[in-house]
Amino acid sequence: GVEALTGLGVLGRAMAARGAYRCIECSGEATELYRDYQRGVLRISICKSCQKPVDKYIEYDPVIILINAVLCKAQAYRHILFNTKINIHGKLCVFCLLCEAYLRWLQLQDSSQNTDPDDLIRYAKEWDFYRMFGIASLEQTSFFIGIFITLWWMTPEMLKRKSDSILLLKALLLSTYGKLLLIPAVIWEHDYTPLCLAFIKVFVLISNSQAIRVTLNLNRILPWFAIFFGLILENGVVCLFQKMGWDV
Predict the structure, then answer these.
(1) Which of 23, 25, 68, 100 has the largest count of CB atoms under 10 Å?
(2) Nearest to 228 by CA among 113, 137, 147
(3) Could you read off the pLDDT of 83-100 as tens digits, one per residue?
(4) To which protein family does this belong (predicted)?
(5) What is the pLDDT of residues 197-228, one digit of tens each?
């Protein structure tokens, strides 16, 4: 607990200067997460709005925080998005897209009966994987664009600043971590694999909804409305690829 608090020292002073902290309970702004009374005496700050600890998770083990995030608790999401410095958004996004591309590529190979070991065939199969990665990237991009368009239309005041849009994009990228479960679902293939893949899809959408809700401090309905339009745009892209004769 003490190590986790002291580890926030440098970051804490920088973020406090901008008032960038948020209370994980009410999402109110806070100038500090804890107060250092010297000689190892640290005290978690109390939120002026709700009178609760600003961020109790700074004392928690990362595993506990991860479990709470998997359970889609708003407090855990606020802790990760507002009160920590995480810069794995891009890497996580690429890795999730690779997982999705691999799953699609594997399904494409299963549907193909060609077992010719010729180098040209292997080269074509390799390019199939790159094509699947590109399609998955375009689908996710269209999904995010649909969400942003809906939010800009419904709540234009929420995304006036560029920093708000960037934060929302980072939150959406982080909330796609559920796609990492695609690989185990494929490796341990079972009769219920299609059902598992459907549950993973639902879990990712729930995580996306929670990320939108926490980032913009919205009710539960509007994030799902934005996700619905995002899915419409994503499926529109899928239909376009299918009309072009591509396997997706």
Answers:
(1) 23
(2) 147
(3) 888 888 889 999 999 888
(4) Belongs to the ARV1 family.
(5) 889 999 999 999 999 999 998 888 999 999 99
Q: What is the pTM of this model?
A: 0.81
Q: Which two tokens stand for residue 192?
A: 């219920």
Angle (deg, nearest 10), helices 74-82 and 193-216: 60
DSSP run (H or E) holding 21: strand 21-22
Q: Count CA within 13 A, CB hemisphere, residue 121.
A: 8
Residue 135's Cβ-side half-sphere holds a number of Cα atoms within 13 Å equal to: 24
Q: For tokens 């999401």, name the residue.
A: 77
For residues 146 and 227, what is the distance between their CA atoms, to the nearest angstrom? Answer: 8
**Type of residue found at 231:** L
91 token code pair: 């890497």
* Residue indicated by tokens 């994009």: 169
- Record the tokens describing residue 179, joined without a space: 């796609």
